[in-house]
């Protein structure tokens, strides 16, 4: 049974999840396990339990936005197991993760898919020497544990409590008798070399007399300490990183260090799930690489964990798309990294500080601070931005002495004002604040100052993206129909959904044209790419189809004319298109396709794929012919037109996804058409994080039971 470091008397669910996590690690032979759960209010994963790693190691991953590129987020988006077999594969597929986790490991991520939604994910890691792929038994065990966790969460009366720090789950190990432990200690004392034991937190749990002599301290002064804290000459990020490497990779490692003034020592580290055994031997000559610098005092460089955290945050900032993304990223990752609770993000606009994002402040406070002139004496923000120097206020008294009014605006207790400068330009100001007094160490000030430059560049990019995005949205709204015509004998519903990432604009389009009282034309298509150019070409294709359809051209001629128009434009983009002529009086449809997805037809409870013979994509060849297919549309029947974004899901087969849509349609009798579109999208994209834009057009003939 697993042991929780801090038991919660009301935490039966937490204990059950921790036990399942321990079972996953044991059953697969993994060395490290982590459990992430989605927050209720925001698309953010929180690390709630872990085993096999110190909490400090996982600081960059305590909060992981669902939009971040990582194995776990992909596993949740795609509802499948994601396997990373090597460090090289990690660097290729997830460079940001590899920068913070530069170790030789294998990794698997599995979603916790419940009855109603996905609860989060399970992450497991193995030592570097394991086979490259998981066995069928390991896959089965991971899937079984993930289902077990999801079932626990489904059946819980309320979600588990999410703490600021994850719970540490220890795997129960066999305890040796006292006599055996004493004999082992006596054996180690008789060795002619140094022997040291470390736990996974890096603390010394055992040291023999030889090791103490080689290290230059009495055993009593070393026990319970970390070597890089109790031995100044080991207080270097390089040596701490050696320890982190063996803990994560579970692979032996050796290195040489200089104990001043001239004693070279070789350290051999042998890790397992319970700790690290260290063998220390003296060297008679210095390493061939030359002497290492002698350190007589604590170095000013940041600790290894802080350096990795800075790399992680810098990489995350490069991926923030818009201002909202940047605000969320600072709130979710930068604030917790520095113990802050609140944020105000300002941009400099026309000589005033315009608040564009905030966290932890009451709206009334934001209203009072928004739009202050750069020369304001109400807060230090203007002065910090004007001087280009950050300002740190560890308590309210310090703030009150410099800015008497500032300490009365809110109940915050400490502040860091970071000027945001990009390429020498004043971009804005980022304010981190604390609910309690906070002394800013030299390390924190240096790292925050470095981060300010990265935040400034991210803010510059985010504002440019938002301006482009606004133009793109306005263009998209103009090019797609604002409303669909009302036709006697026909119920209709349509939806356009932009891709979850990028400019939120694409080339998918739809249209419904009323030709006369009993006939209509339905069109759906997809211009390749996600750009303003694709959207503009989509508008031109729609216009061409509209002109020829309303002029009375048959389906094949409509597509041929659109194809000629595309050739005249000399566009490099190709277009798929499905044109449907509806004769509501005769209950007939005539279809022509330019390489588009086949529609689905539901008649009663029977659903089939309409066998439309496709012609080439528009724009490939000027003189092609587009075959025509005739079919029936009985009263009550429903015709579903869609673009490839709804069925082309990474890691799955598009044909099988079409069949999934067909089965879903068959079971959806009587459903409102708008609600039916929602459920169709969820059928293939349960998380809603679709990678391509999607268009859906549903047409239901009236007059029958549905």
Notable features of this structure?
six-stranded antiparallel β-sheet, 27% strand, single chain, eight-stranded mixed β-sheet, 706 residues, disordered N terminus
Quick take:
The protein is of the alpha+beta class and 706 residues long. The protein has 21 helices and 30 strands. Helices cover 36% and strands 27% of the residues.
Q: Could you tell me the strand content as a percent range?
A: 25-35%
Principal-axis shape equals globular
Number of helices: 21
Q: What class do helices, strands and sheet pairing give?
A: alpha+beta
Query: Biggest β-sheet, characterized?
Result: 8 strands, mixed
> What's the end-to-end separation, in Å?
54 Å
Rounded to an integer in angstroms, the radius of gyration calculated over CA atoms is: 32 Å
Please, what is the average pLDDT?
84
pLDDT < 50 runs, ≥5 residues: 1-10, 289-302
Percent of residues in helices: 25-40%
**Count of DSSP strands:** 30
């Amino acid at each position: 049974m697993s042991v929780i470091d801090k038991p919660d008397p009301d935490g039966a669910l937490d204990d059950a999840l921790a036990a399942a996590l321990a079972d996953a690690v044991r059953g697969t032979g993994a060395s490290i396990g982590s459990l992430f759960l989605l927050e209720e209010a925001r698309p953010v994963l929180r690390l709630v339990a872990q085993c096999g790693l110190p909490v400090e190691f996982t600081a960059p991953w305590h909060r992981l936005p669902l939009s971040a590129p990582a194995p776990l987020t992909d596993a949740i988006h795609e509802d499948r197991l994601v396997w990373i077999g090597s460090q090289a594969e990690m660097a290729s597929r997830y460079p940001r993760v590899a920068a913070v986790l530069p170790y030789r490991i294998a990794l698997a991520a599995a979603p916790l898919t419940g009855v109603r939604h996905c609860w989060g994910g399970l992450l497991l890691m193995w030592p570097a020497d394991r086979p490259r792929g998981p066995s069928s038994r390991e896959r089965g065990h991971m899937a079984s544990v993930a289902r077990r966790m999801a079932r626990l969460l489904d059946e819980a009366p309320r979600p588990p409590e999410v703490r600021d720090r994850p719970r540490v789950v220890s795997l129960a190990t066999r305890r040796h008798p006292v006599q055996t432990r004493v004999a082992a200690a006596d054996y180690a004392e008789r060795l002619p070399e140094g022997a040291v034991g470390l736990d996974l937190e890096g603390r010394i749990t055992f040291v023999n007399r030889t090791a103490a002599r080689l290290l230059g301290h009495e055993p009593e002064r070393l026990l319970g300490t970390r070597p890089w804290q109790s031995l100044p000459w080991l207080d270097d990020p390089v040596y701490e990183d050696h320890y982190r490497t063996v803990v994560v990779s579970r692979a032996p490692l050796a290195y040489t260090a200089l104990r001043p003034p001239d004693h070279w020592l070789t350290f051999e580290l042998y890790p397992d799930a319970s700790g690290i055994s260290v063998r220390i031997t003296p060297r008679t000559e210095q390493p061939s690489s030359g002497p290492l610098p002698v350190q007589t005092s604590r170095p000013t460089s940041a600790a290894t964990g802080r350096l990795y955290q800075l790399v992680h945050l810098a990489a995350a900032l490069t991926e923030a798309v818009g201002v909202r993304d940047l605000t969320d990223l600072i709130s979710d990752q930068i604030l917790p990294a520095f113990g802050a609770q609140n944020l105000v993000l300002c941009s400099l606009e026309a000589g005033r500080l315009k608040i564009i994002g905030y966290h932890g402040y009451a709206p009334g406070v934001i209203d009072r601070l928004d739009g202050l002139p750069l020369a304001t004496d109400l807060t230090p923000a203007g002065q910090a931005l004007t001087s280009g120097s950050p300002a740190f206020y560890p308590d309210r008294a310090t703030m009150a002495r410099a800015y008497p009014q500032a300490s009365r605006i809110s109940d915050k207790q400490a502040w860091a004002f970071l000027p945001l400068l990009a390429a020498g330009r004043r971009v804005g100001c980022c304010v981190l604040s604390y609910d309690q007094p906070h002394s800013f160490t030299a390390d924190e000030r240096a790292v925050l100052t470095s981060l300010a430059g990265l935040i400034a560049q991210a803010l510059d990019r985010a504002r440019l993206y938002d301006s482009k995005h606004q133009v793109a949205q306005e263009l998209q709204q103009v090019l797609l129909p604002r409303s669909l015509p009302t036709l006697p004998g026909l119920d209709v519903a349509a939806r356009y959904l932009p891709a979850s990432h990028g400019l939120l604009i694409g080339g998918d389009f739809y249209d419904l044209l009323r030709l006369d009282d009993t006939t209509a034309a339905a069109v759906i298509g997809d211009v390749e790419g996600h750009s303003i150019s694709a959207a503009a070409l989509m508008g031109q294709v729609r216009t061409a189809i509209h002109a020829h359809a309303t002029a009375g051209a048959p389906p094949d001629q409509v597509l041929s004319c659109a194809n000629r128009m595309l050739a005249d434009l000399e566009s490099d983009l190709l277009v798929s298109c499905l044109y449907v002529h509806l004769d509501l009086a005769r209950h007939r449809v005539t279809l022509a396709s330019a390489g588009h997805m086949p529609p689905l037809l539901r008649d009663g409870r029977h659903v089939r794929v309409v066998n439309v013979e496709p012609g080439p994509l528009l724009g490939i060849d000027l003189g092609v012919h587009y075959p025509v297919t005739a079919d029936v549309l009985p009263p009550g029947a429903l015709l579903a037109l869609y673009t490839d974004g709804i069925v082309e899901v990474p890691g799955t087969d598009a044909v099988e996804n079409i069949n999934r849509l067909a089965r879903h349609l068959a079971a959806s009798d009587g459903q409102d058409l708008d609600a039916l579109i929602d459920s169709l999208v969820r059928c293939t994209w349960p998380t809603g994080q679709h990678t391509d834009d999607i268009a859906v057009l549903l047409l239901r003939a009236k007059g029958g039971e549905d």
